[in-house]
Design a protein that fits this description.
493 residues, alpha/beta, four-stranded parallel beta sheet, elongated
């Protein structure tokens, strides 16, 4: 670690940096320079020199707790630039600041993971609970596993202690990383980099740690041979970290139209090619509401998956052995289809308390504004709401407020509220089961009263009526009230 200047970059080394790209190449972006290929040769690259992997923190009031991560990333980029002749036109590293949302975020991360020289995880309890972070680690590790000499000689992982962590709290893949922090200041090894940044009197120690980390990143990039590979969607890979509790696995179910099935009286520009592409707040928006919901769920330290409600209904309505919490994003316009209204009515009858309902309703949409009262009444009839239901409202109403979530800003608060409440209800249900039996306390009838619960397909015995026809009031009011005991309460927002 005492080497300086040109000693870091031995002339003629096959891993050495180059000031300019080979003929026909380009300096590239996110670091430029050269990257070793599987045979040890040099390839022109527009690749990041290092990849920062960290768990996004949920907002604290109006403050962004990820700002210090961004500051560290910028300081680390500057330090690496000082230690290498890399081109300065683009950043030398890669860090996802999109909160896993927007256009092609998965593709951009996958490309960086397929080409970066060094993987830099920020150790934090949230990192090892994050499925995307685990998938990032796994994706990079596969490159090292296929390198000459195997992963033992090509780990190319330089961890950063973002907070102090005991070895016992680290998963096996982290404890297997051979990296010694003993040469770093004690304040860093005990409390982590975040503590140094948060305390002004440690500014000098912080700068020293950043420099030492940059030196180590440069050394690892020179000493290891991690092959560049074709990008593979990292979200399709398993996580490198141990499995999480079922209570952390959130199902986001969308009940909406796709543009090809929108009835004639409804504006189809709010919908997309898939039902999960519904965007009720931005006409023709590129980012679906379900995408935003998944981002919000990750901020709550949940692992979300997005599905069409129609395809996931049996899973969500399973009362005997519920598999995890869920949130239903319900487009009230869909309830005009009697077939799908019957599906929602069956969901309401079974009443799983660990699946909450959020009903976005954009009152800036002229069609919604004109049908607010009628559609709210239809929703009430189908969901068979009771006076005991939660009355959470994201914004103050005028007494005639139908409780729809009227703005994208309100949706953020409403969704996180719903997701956390669903998780809490699932934990209460999951923990309440009798140990070793898989049954609720009091026997197998805890999931409902009387005999066998009805099957979902029994809800569709009647012939399907034409789409666009409003259901009648009596159509959904002839159900019994036994659903109050099946799931333990109803949660609509």
């Amino acid at each position: 670690m005492s080497r300086t200047g040109s000693a870091l970059f031995p002339r003629g080394s096959r891993s050495s940096y180059t000031e300019a790209p080979p003929e026909g190449g380009s300096a590239g972006h996110a670091g430029g320079g050269c990257v070793n290929d599987a045979e040890g040769g040099r390839r022109a690259s527009a690749k990041p020199h290092f990849f920062i992997s960290y768990a996004h923190m949920p907002p604290v009031g109006s403050r962004n707790p990820n700002l210090r991560v961004s500051q560290f990333y910028e300081d680390l980029c500057e330090a690496v630039l000082q230690l290498t002749p890399l081109p300065t036109a683009e950043p030398v590293g890669f860090m996802d600041e999109t909160m896993h949302q927007g256009d092609n975020w998965a593709m951009k991360i996958s490309e960086a993971l397929a080409t970066c020289r060094v993987f830099v995880p920020l150790y934090h309890p949230r990192l090892f609970r994050s499925t995307p972070c685990g998938q990032e680690w796994y994706t990079f590790a596969q490159r090292a596993a296929n390198a000459p000499g195997g992963p033992a000689h090509n780990s190319a992982i330089v961890p950063v202690l973002w907070v102090g962590m005991r070895d016992a709290a680290l998963p096996p893949v982290a404890t297997a990383v051979q990296y010694n922090h003993s040469s770093f200041p004690r304040a860093y090894t005990e409390d982590g980099l975040y503590a140094l940044m948060a305390q002004r009197h440690h500014q000098g120690l912080y700068e020293k740690v950043v420099y030492k980390l940059a030196r180590r990143i440069v050394e690892v990039a020179l000493e290891t041979v991690v092959p560049v590979v074709e990008p593979v969607d990292f979200t399709t890979n398993p996580s490198a970290f141990p499995g999480r509790s079922p209570a952390d696995e959130l199902t986001i179910a969308v009940l909406a139209f796709k543009d090809s099935e929108v009835p004639e009286h409804r504006d189809r520009t709010w919908y997309g090619a898939r039902r999960v592409d519904w965007q009720p707040y931005v006409r023709g928006g590129e980012s679906a509401l379900a995408e935003k919901a998944a981002q919000l769920a990750r901020q709550c330290d949940l692992n979300p998956t997005v599905h069409e409600f129609d395809a996931r209904a049996d899973h969500l309505m399973e009362l005997d052995r519920p598999q995890g919490p869920g949130v239903l994003l319900l487009d009230r316009w869909v309830l005009q289809d009697p077939h799908r209204a019957a599906l929602v009515a069956e969901f309401a009858r079974r009443n799983p308390a660990w699946v909450t309902v959020v009903e976005p309703w954009n009152r800036d949409d002229p069609q919604c504004a004109a049908q607010t009262r009628a559609m709210a009444e239809l929703s009430d009839r189908v969901l068979h709401r009771r006076s005991a239901r939660p009355s959470f409202r994201p914004a103050a109403g005028d007494g005639d407020d139908p409780e729809g979530v009227s703005t994208a800003r309100d949706f953020g608060l409403a969704f996180q509220h719903a997701a956390i409440r669903a998780q809490k209800a699932f934990k209460e249900r999951h923990l309440a089961r009798s140990p070793g039996t898989g049954e609720p306390p009091g026997g197998s009838e805890g999931a409902g009263r009387g005999g066998e619960r009805p099957r979902l397909r029994e809800a569709f015995g009647a012939q399907r009526a034409p789409t666009g026809q409003l259901g009648t009031e009596d159509e959904y009011d002839d159900r019994d009230d036994d659903h109050d005991s099946t799931g333990g309460g109803e949660d609509e927002l």
